[in-house]
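Researcher: Here's the sequence for the chain we discussed earlier.
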Amino acid sequence: MDISIVIPLYNEEESLPELFAWIERVMKAHGFSYEVIFVNDGSTDHSWQVIEQLQGQAPDIVKGIKFRRNYGKSPALFCGFERAQGEVVITMDADLQDSPDEIPALYRMITEGGYDLVSGWKKKRYDPLSKTLPTKLFNATARRVSGIRNLHDFNCGLKAYRKEVIKNIEVYGEMHRYIPYLAKNAGFTRIGEKVVHHQARKYGKTKFGLNRFVNGYLDLITLWFLSTFGVKPMHFFGLLGSLMFVLGFIAVVIVGVSKLYYMYNDLPYRLVTESPYFYLALTAMIIGTQLFLAGFLGELISRNSAERNKYQIEKII
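Model: Thanks. This is the structure I predict for it:
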């Protein structure tokens, strides 16, 4: 099979028939063998009934997954990826803002261009300024942290993947925003970008609020930490804890030596416990010890993890 198209959706009953008809036209025009996997993320409208109707019209092409409740886009993509069989996997949103006409070019970039992953870039957007400005700031931060400098739109729903990529990454929580980063951490470094057409929403209303930007930054920090120190937490907590303990210890020594100096020279002096620097130094030593112990406990947990020796092997001869 050439292409698997994975479409997560939530309350998109109006757009589904039009979207599938559009996909059909594009696929037939280019002679692709394909499947369309709709993942119904706990919709409260008639989206599932529409999917059942589409499956009845094209039983060999349309597949559906129905969640009992709304879990989010990442779980929907994870389940869709598990069942995808195409050599190239395309993801797109169900709201008709992503154009199926982009699929052939994305497919060629994977099969002929040698890319592992190609992300769409909605260079010209039909979104309000309150959404585009935070998006630009978010993407700039993601580029800086991930090291993937050639991507301008990490969160674009229209992406193409080599099959091996989606079978070797785990999308969880709200990590769908950082699939290119997950792919890079898994060893798939041939990541490209294509400018794609962005259409104004035709039906319904957006499902995303401003809180996604806050959650996005927190997820980015989590992913950076796990990818950098996930299997070696002592390198982070141990180093930071040791540094704080040493600084606190030096400060205590300075406070004590200064008191002895004043005593030896018969100068007026204060008790060590009357100096605020003593308590600051003591606090730094306590926090440093706790951080060191946190790193040690993290190492113990990491050493007992079932995935401690799980590596991405490309070929064996």
